Amino acid sequence: MTDPDFRNAFYTHKDVLYRFVYRMTGSANGAEDIVQECFLALWRRPEAYDPNRGALRAFLLGIARKLVLKRWRDEHPHDSLEEDSSICEPVDVLGQERAEIVRRAVQMLPPLQREAIILAEYEALTLEEIARATESAVAGVKSRLHRARTNLRRMLAPLLEEKGTVYGTR
Amino acid sequence: MELGNDPRLKRLLDEWQVPDDAPDTLEQRVLGQPRPWWRTLMSSRVRIPLPVAIAFSVALVWLAVLVARDRMPALEPLDTTYDLRGFQPVNSVNVRIERSGDAAQ
User: How high is the pLDDT of residue B1?
Assistant: First the structure.
Protein backbone atom coordinates (compact mmCIF):
# COMPACT_ATOMS: atom_id res chain seq x y z
CA MET A 1 0.00 0.00 0.00
CA THR A 2 1.48 3.29 -1.08
CA ASP A 3 1.40 6.41 1.01
CA PRO A 4 -1.32 8.05 -1.15
CA ASP A 5 -3.43 4.86 -0.94
CA PHE A 6 -3.14 4.90 2.83
CA ARG A 7 -4.05 8.57 3.07
CA ASN A 8 -7.03 7.99 0.82
CA ALA A 9 -8.19 5.10 3.01
CA PHE A 10 -7.78 7.24 6.10
CA TYR A 11 -9.79 10.19 4.80
CA THR A 12 -12.49 7.91 3.40
CA HIS A 13 -13.09 5.77 6.48
CA LYS A 14 -11.92 7.66 9.56
CA ASP A 15 -15.30 9.17 10.35
CA VAL A 16 -17.35 6.00 10.14
CA LEU A 17 -14.79 4.18 12.29
CA TYR A 18 -14.73 6.99 14.82
CA ARG A 19 -18.54 7.14 15.13
CA PHE A 20 -18.77 3.36 15.45
CA VAL A 21 -16.12 3.12 18.16
CA TYR A 22 -17.47 6.19 19.94
CA ARG A 23 -20.90 4.59 20.14
CA MET A 24 -19.47 1.23 21.18
CA THR A 25 -17.26 2.61 23.94
CA GLY A 26 -19.04 5.83 24.89
CA SER A 27 -15.65 7.54 25.05
CA ALA A 28 -14.22 10.12 22.68
CA ASN A 29 -10.65 9.52 23.82
CA GLY A 30 -11.05 5.77 23.64
CA ALA A 31 -12.49 6.08 20.15
CA GLU A 32 -9.53 8.14 18.99
CA ASP A 33 -7.06 5.61 20.41
CA ILE A 34 -8.78 2.65 18.80
CA VAL A 35 -9.21 4.29 15.39
CA GLN A 36 -5.52 5.19 15.44
CA GLU A 37 -4.67 1.56 16.19
CA CYS A 38 -6.89 0.45 13.29
CA PHE A 39 -5.00 2.53 10.78
CA LEU A 40 -1.65 1.56 12.22
CA ALA A 41 -2.66 -2.07 11.79
CA LEU A 42 -3.53 -1.38 8.16
CA TRP A 43 -0.23 0.42 7.60
CA ARG A 44 1.82 -2.35 9.16
CA ARG A 45 0.06 -5.24 7.44
CA PRO A 46 -1.69 -3.99 4.32
CA GLU A 47 -1.57 -7.49 2.87
CA ALA A 48 -4.10 -8.57 5.52
CA TYR A 49 -6.79 -6.81 3.50
CA ASP A 50 -8.06 -8.90 0.62
CA PRO A 51 -10.28 -6.83 -1.72
CA ASN A 52 -11.91 -10.03 -2.95
CA ARG A 53 -13.39 -10.61 0.49
CA GLY A 54 -15.21 -7.33 0.77
CA ALA A 55 -14.90 -3.59 1.02
CA LEU A 56 -12.16 -1.87 2.95
CA ARG A 57 -14.78 -0.27 5.21
CA ALA A 58 -15.95 -3.68 6.44
CA PHE A 59 -12.34 -4.77 6.94
CA LEU A 60 -11.51 -1.70 9.02
CA LEU A 61 -14.73 -1.99 11.01
CA GLY A 62 -13.74 -5.59 11.70
CA ILE A 63 -10.38 -4.46 13.13
CA ALA A 64 -12.09 -1.75 15.16
CA ARG A 65 -14.62 -4.17 16.63
CA LYS A 66 -11.88 -6.62 17.61
CA LEU A 67 -10.05 -3.85 19.44
CA VAL A 68 -13.26 -2.69 21.12
CA LEU A 69 -14.13 -6.22 22.23
CA LYS A 70 -10.59 -6.80 23.48
CA ARG A 71 -10.79 -3.65 25.56
CA TRP A 72 -14.24 -4.66 26.81
CA ARG A 73 -12.95 -8.10 27.84
CA ASP A 74 -10.06 -6.48 29.70
CA GLU A 75 -12.48 -4.25 31.58
CA HIS A 76 -15.13 -6.95 32.17
CA PRO A 77 -13.15 -10.17 32.59
CA HIS A 78 -16.10 -12.04 34.08
CA ASP A 79 -18.81 -10.96 31.66
CA SER A 80 -19.81 -12.74 28.50
CA LEU A 81 -20.00 -11.21 25.07
CA GLU A 82 -22.87 -13.46 24.14
CA GLU A 83 -26.14 -11.77 23.61
CA ASP A 84 -28.32 -14.48 25.12
CA SER A 85 -26.85 -13.86 28.53
CA SER A 86 -28.51 -10.54 29.06
CA ILE A 87 -32.07 -9.38 29.35
CA CYS A 88 -32.05 -5.66 29.85
CA GLU A 89 -34.32 -3.91 32.29
CA PRO A 90 -36.13 -0.66 31.54
CA VAL A 91 -33.91 2.35 32.14
CA ASP A 92 -34.82 4.97 34.69
CA VAL A 93 -35.98 7.91 32.62
CA LEU A 94 -36.68 10.38 35.37
CA GLY A 95 -34.53 13.45 35.31
CA GLN A 96 -32.55 12.47 32.23
CA GLU A 97 -32.30 13.81 28.73
CA ARG A 98 -33.86 11.59 26.09
CA ALA A 99 -30.62 11.37 24.14
CA GLU A 100 -28.80 10.34 27.31
CA ILE A 101 -31.41 7.69 27.99
CA VAL A 102 -30.97 6.29 24.48
CA ARG A 103 -27.19 6.36 24.87
CA ARG A 104 -27.42 4.46 28.14
CA ALA A 105 -29.81 1.92 26.66
CA VAL A 106 -27.54 1.21 23.69
CA GLN A 107 -24.49 1.02 25.95
CA MET A 108 -26.28 -1.49 28.18
CA LEU A 109 -26.77 -3.93 25.32
CA PRO A 110 -24.38 -6.88 25.25
CA PRO A 111 -21.46 -6.03 22.94
CA LEU A 112 -22.45 -8.25 20.03
CA GLN A 113 -25.97 -6.85 19.96
CA ARG A 114 -24.64 -3.35 20.40
CA GLU A 115 -22.30 -3.54 17.43
CA ALA A 116 -25.06 -4.97 15.24
CA ILE A 117 -27.55 -2.24 16.12
CA ILE A 118 -24.95 0.54 15.73
CA LEU A 119 -23.79 -0.67 12.33
CA ALA A 120 -27.34 -1.23 11.10
CA GLU A 121 -29.10 1.76 12.57
CA TYR A 122 -26.51 4.50 12.80
CA GLU A 123 -24.15 3.57 9.96
CA ALA A 124 -26.77 2.04 7.66
CA LEU A 125 -24.73 -1.02 6.77
CA THR A 126 -26.52 -3.87 5.04
CA LEU A 127 -26.85 -7.23 6.73
CA GLU A 128 -24.18 -8.61 4.42
CA GLU A 129 -21.77 -5.81 5.31
CA ILE A 130 -22.37 -6.30 9.01
CA ALA A 131 -21.82 -10.01 8.61
CA ARG A 132 -18.52 -9.33 6.85
CA ALA A 133 -17.34 -6.83 9.42
CA THR A 134 -18.27 -9.05 12.35
CA GLU A 135 -17.18 -12.28 10.67
CA SER A 136 -20.61 -13.75 11.28
CA ALA A 137 -23.33 -15.38 9.23
CA VAL A 138 -26.12 -13.17 7.94
CA ALA A 139 -28.60 -15.26 9.90
CA GLY A 140 -26.62 -14.61 13.07
CA VAL A 141 -26.64 -10.87 12.42
CA LYS A 142 -30.41 -10.95 11.87
CA SER A 143 -30.85 -12.79 15.13
CA ARG A 144 -28.68 -10.29 17.02
CA LEU A 145 -30.55 -7.37 15.53
CA HIS A 146 -33.84 -8.90 16.53
CA ARG A 147 -32.67 -9.42 20.10
CA ALA A 148 -31.15 -5.94 20.22
CA ARG A 149 -34.43 -4.36 19.13
CA THR A 150 -36.37 -6.43 21.63
CA ASN A 151 -34.05 -5.33 24.42
CA LEU A 152 -34.15 -1.70 23.33
CA ARG A 153 -37.95 -1.71 23.19
CA ARG A 154 -37.99 -3.11 26.70
CA MET A 155 -35.44 -0.63 28.03
CA LEU A 156 -36.97 2.34 26.28
CA ALA A 157 -40.56 1.34 26.85
CA PRO A 158 -41.31 4.41 28.98
CA LEU A 159 -40.29 6.65 26.09
CA LEU A 160 -41.92 4.55 23.39
CA GLU A 161 -45.24 4.27 25.18
CA GLU A 162 -45.63 7.92 25.99
CA LYS A 163 -48.02 9.92 23.86
CA GLY A 164 -46.58 13.37 23.45
CA THR A 165 -45.18 13.34 26.96
CA VAL A 166 -41.45 13.74 27.40
CA TYR A 167 -39.85 12.05 30.34
CA GLY A 168 -37.06 13.93 31.91
CA THR A 169 -35.80 17.22 30.52
CA ARG A 170 -34.96 18.07 27.01
CA MET B 1 -33.06 -1.87 7.00
CA GLU B 2 -34.94 -4.09 9.32
CA LEU B 3 -35.26 -1.29 11.82
CA GLY B 4 -37.53 0.40 9.34
CA ASN B 5 -40.15 -1.99 10.65
CA ASP B 6 -40.28 0.01 13.85
CA PRO B 7 -40.17 3.71 13.00
CA ARG B 8 -40.83 4.76 16.62
CA LEU B 9 -37.75 2.94 17.85
CA LYS B 10 -35.73 4.27 14.92
CA ARG B 11 -36.76 7.85 15.66
CA LEU B 12 -35.93 7.42 19.30
CA LEU B 13 -32.50 5.96 18.54
CA ASP B 14 -31.78 8.90 16.23
CA GLU B 15 -32.01 11.22 19.22
CA TRP B 16 -28.59 10.02 20.36
CA GLN B 17 -26.13 11.83 18.15
CA VAL B 18 -22.36 11.71 18.20
CA PRO B 19 -19.93 13.95 16.26
CA ASP B 20 -20.14 13.24 12.53
CA ASP B 21 -16.44 13.73 11.97
CA ALA B 22 -13.40 12.38 13.70
CA PRO B 23 -11.41 15.10 15.52
CA ASP B 24 -8.52 16.79 13.73
CA THR B 25 -6.12 15.42 16.32
CA LEU B 26 -6.70 11.97 14.87
CA GLU B 27 -5.26 13.08 11.55
CA GLN B 28 -2.17 14.37 13.27
CA ARG B 29 -1.84 11.15 15.24
CA VAL B 30 -2.18 8.86 12.22
CA LEU B 31 -0.66 10.82 9.36
CA GLY B 32 1.57 13.17 11.30
CA GLN B 33 2.37 16.74 10.30
CA PRO B 34 4.70 17.48 7.43
CA ARG B 35 8.10 18.33 8.90
CA PRO B 36 10.64 20.74 7.45
CA TRP B 37 13.52 19.06 5.66
CA TRP B 38 16.11 20.33 8.11
CA ARG B 39 14.26 18.82 11.06
CA THR B 40 14.07 15.52 9.24
CA LEU B 41 17.79 15.76 8.55
CA MET B 42 18.59 16.62 12.14
CA SER B 43 16.56 13.78 13.56
CA SER B 44 17.69 11.15 11.06
CA ARG B 45 19.80 8.30 12.30
CA VAL B 46 22.00 5.79 10.57
CA ARG B 47 22.88 2.46 12.11
CA ILE B 48 26.25 0.99 11.19
CA PRO B 49 28.13 -2.00 12.61
CA LEU B 50 30.74 -1.18 15.27
CA PRO B 51 33.77 -2.51 13.27
CA VAL B 52 32.79 -0.28 10.38
CA ALA B 53 32.52 2.67 12.74
CA ILE B 54 35.96 1.97 14.21
CA ALA B 55 37.55 1.53 10.76
CA PHE B 56 35.92 4.72 9.59
CA SER B 57 37.18 6.62 12.66
CA VAL B 58 40.74 5.32 12.19
CA ALA B 59 40.69 6.25 8.51
CA LEU B 60 39.39 9.69 9.39
CA VAL B 61 42.19 10.29 11.91
CA TRP B 62 44.80 9.03 9.46
CA LEU B 63 43.46 11.31 6.74
CA ALA B 64 43.49 14.26 9.13
CA VAL B 65 47.11 13.59 10.02
CA LEU B 66 48.08 13.39 6.35
CA VAL B 67 46.38 16.66 5.55
CA ALA B 68 47.94 18.38 8.53
CA ARG B 69 51.39 17.19 7.50
CA ASP B 70 50.91 18.44 3.95
CA ARG B 71 49.96 21.87 5.18
CA MET B 72 52.98 22.30 7.51
CA PRO B 73 55.72 24.62 6.03
CA ALA B 74 58.68 22.64 4.79
CA LEU B 75 61.75 23.33 6.92
CA GLU B 76 64.99 23.91 5.05
CA PRO B 77 67.71 21.69 6.41
CA LEU B 78 70.48 23.66 8.08
CA ASP B 79 73.54 23.91 5.87
CA THR B 80 76.44 22.99 7.99
CA THR B 81 79.07 23.10 5.24
CA TYR B 82 80.88 26.23 4.09
CA ASP B 83 81.86 26.83 0.57
CA LEU B 84 84.81 29.27 0.26
CA ARG B 85 84.80 29.41 -3.50
CA GLY B 86 84.80 32.98 -4.74
CA PHE B 87 86.02 34.26 -1.40
CA GLN B 88 87.84 37.61 -1.87
CA PRO B 89 90.20 38.51 0.94
CA VAL B 90 90.53 42.24 1.64
CA ASN B 91 93.68 43.79 0.29
CA SER B 92 94.62 46.07 3.15
CA VAL B 93 93.52 46.07 6.68
CA ASN B 94 93.64 49.36 8.66
CA VAL B 95 92.95 48.78 12.23
CA ARG B 96 91.78 51.76 14.28
CA ILE B 97 90.98 51.42 17.90
CA GLU B 98 88.38 53.79 19.32
CA ARG B 99 87.94 54.29 22.98
CA SER B 100 84.72 55.31 24.61
CA GLY B 101 86.15 58.76 25.43
CA ASP B 102 86.87 59.39 21.74
CA ALA B 103 83.34 58.60 20.75
CA ALA B 104 81.94 61.17 23.25
CA GLN B 105 83.99 63.97 21.70
Answer: 44
Domains of chain A, each with CATH number or no CATH: 1-79 (1.10.1740.10), 80-170 (1.10.10.10)
By CB atoms closer than 10 A (0-12, 13-18, 19+), residue A33 is middle
Give the mean model confidence (pLDDT) for residues A22-39.
Answer: 93
pTM above 0.80, yes or no: no
**Considering CB atoms only, which of B9, B16, B30 is closest to A39?**
B30
**Residue A58 φ/ψ region, left for φ over 0, alpha for ψ in the -120 to 50 degree band, beta for the rest:** alpha
Q: Looking at per-residue confidence, does A1 or A127 come out higher?
A: A127
Do A15 and B21 lie within an 8 Å CB cutoff? yes
The shortest C-alpha distance from B38 to chain A (Å) reads: 21
Residues of B in contact with A122 (CB under 8 A): 13
Give whole-number Cα distances, A39 to A56, A64, A100, A146, in Å: 11, 9, 30, 32
**B61: distance to nearest CA of chain A, Å?**
42
Tell me the helices (H) and strands (E) count for chain A, helix number first. 8, 0
Interface touch B27/A10, C-beta < 8 Å: yes
Residues of A with Cβ-Cβ distance to B32 under 8 angstroms: none
Please tell me which of the candidates B8, B10, B17 has its beta carbon nearest to residue A99: B17
**Residue pLDDT, tens place only, B3-52:** 446 888 999 999 999 999 999 889 888 888 666 677 777 777 788 899 99
- Provide the CA B8 distance to its chain's centre, in angstroms: 73
